[in-house]
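Recall that a protein's primary structure is simply its ordered list of amino acids. Everything else, from secondary elements to tertiary packing, is in principle encoded there. The following example makes that idea concrete.
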Amino acid sequence: MASASANNRSVARRLTALSIALVAVVLALVGAAISVLTERSTRTQVVQSVADTTQSVANALNAADATNRELVQRTMKGFQRYFDANMELDEASGELRSFGALVNDDHGSVDRFANETGGVARVYVRQGTGFSSITSSVKDAQGAREGPQALAGAPLAAAQAGQPWVGRSMVAGKPYMGYYLPVQDAGKKTIALLFIGNDIGVMEEMQQKQVAQTHFFAHGGAYVI
């Protein structure tokens, strides 16, 4: 009897120990599961927070870009009024005439635009398959006017296709929102281009500050390509 009782107690202890071990394992598994879920949830929240902040910066930059593009296209309407809608180009001599007057080296219209708006302006004429400026409001720090500028890149490709082009343009080392508008003859051939640029330097400085002040936790940050 004593032996049987001792065996029962031994079995009971073993069952109790096994039960405790099982409970401990279950609790450990539950704890690990909770930890994993919590970590995943936190990570998801962090990723979402970074994404939201980044999207907010991107939206602000896109809105500023769209506004500048709209403004420069509206501003062009004022510059167009300085010129004859039916300008004529003598391709042999490269002389462009507006209202019968020579546009080449006539800086009155481009300077007037620059003085009234704070922007820059040029007029280009066709030279073979390319285009070169014949008048410009752009001057250096000493007041010397720039010489002829050959059109290149995306604006040239658009001009060759008879299409306008609007986008960020660097002029004399400064950023402008530029607009190149084709001037066509009666045969729909692009003979010249009107170019204006609105100064966006101050706006870009503000955007750079906004990006520089965007932080993610201790060491995270943002930059714009």
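The beta strands are 88-90, 95-98, 101-102, 120-127, 130-136, 165-171, 174-184, 190-199, 215-216, 220-221. The radius of gyration is 35 Å.
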